[in-house]
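Hey forum,

I'm writing up a methods section and want to include a predicted complex as supplementary material. The small molecule is thiamine diphosphate. I've pasted the protein sequence and the SMILES. Can someone with a working setup run it? I'll credit the forum in the acknowledgements.
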Amino acid sequence: MLTQVVGSGLDESGKSEYEVYRKMLTIRLLEEELQRLCYTGEASDLHFNKGQEAITVGACAALSPTDYIVTHHRTIAHSISKGVPMKELISELLGYSTGHNHGISGEMHIQDSRYRYMFAFQLVGTCVSVAAGVAWAVKYFQGEKDIVALFIGDASSGNAQFHEGMNIAAVQKVPLLILVENNGLAGNVRKEVYLPVTNVIDRGLAYGIQGTKVDGNKIEEVVKAVRIGAETVRRNSFPFMVEFDTTRLCWHKQGQRDARSAEEIAELTKRDPLLWTEKRLKISQEDRAKLTSEITQEIQDALSYARNSSKPILPQDL
Ligand SMILES: Cc1ncc(C[n+]2csc(CCOP(=O)(O)OP(=O)(O)O)c2C)c(N)n1
Ligand SMILES: [Mg+2]
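Reply by user p_vandermeer:
Happy to help. Structure tokens for the complex are below, copy them as they are.
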């Protein structure tokens, strides 16, 4: 029964595991709805995050709400995890003026300083130097105790900007937590052709940056590792890495073919973080159906809100 698990402790961050599960399910259902809108043409092609929800939701639950985040190109999960209201997010993704960036940023240039969601990056790897710069400003300009958490994919650690960013982050001793989503894929390409190391955290050692690696599909491991990582960064005012072993269960970008066979994806689905959390919380099929219908209604309300607002005025319209 849902009522029995409400408030069950996840950790001292104060978030209940049920709350975290609900957010993970929200992201899954929202992405499914947006995928349908991509097919009808109402949404342009989007980059989804299916199978990696425990990382974004768990990490944001473990961080302080005043900590900053910088992300890569799969932004829907990060926005929901950091607290961006769904109606504003959907409006943004569909290009309406009620979007939190007035409908002009789209999915890959999301920013919302109210929630300390600082930047999202289409150009993979570039986020590292910018995140290092944000962390520098937080420490030296603002004098805050908050930290910057950067989400980055495993393949992006081969980008030159990754290395430049790691170097300057270490040299300047900035409060940067680097969260690596290691799904063994660069878009649709398999790791054998882009990643010569098993663990991306090993790359941090070249810059004196320590790290830890955990199962990114187990919510409790994510929360614990990020909490410890964030405390380490805050205490030492020095970068730290947490790497997550994870599985992307969708293709790179809406409309592209997956390099993996259906059998391979079916095998990976056994590690679905939603299934794992449901087992932990003893959430029955009826519980999930009830929650699904509640969340579906929220998504439809947010969609109606977006559709009833005006489209943004673009420079070329002036
Ligand atoms: C600088 C740059 N080079 C190439 C691309 C094209 N591109 C988009 S996503 C991607 C792969 C990123 O892999 P990873 O960081 O592991 O993230 P994942 O796709 O697994 O989420 C690439 C090469 C890009 N966006 N930016
Ligand atoms: Mg990857």
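Some notes you might quote in the supplement: Residues 14 and 123 are 35 Å apart (CA to CA). The first helix runs from residue 2 to 5.
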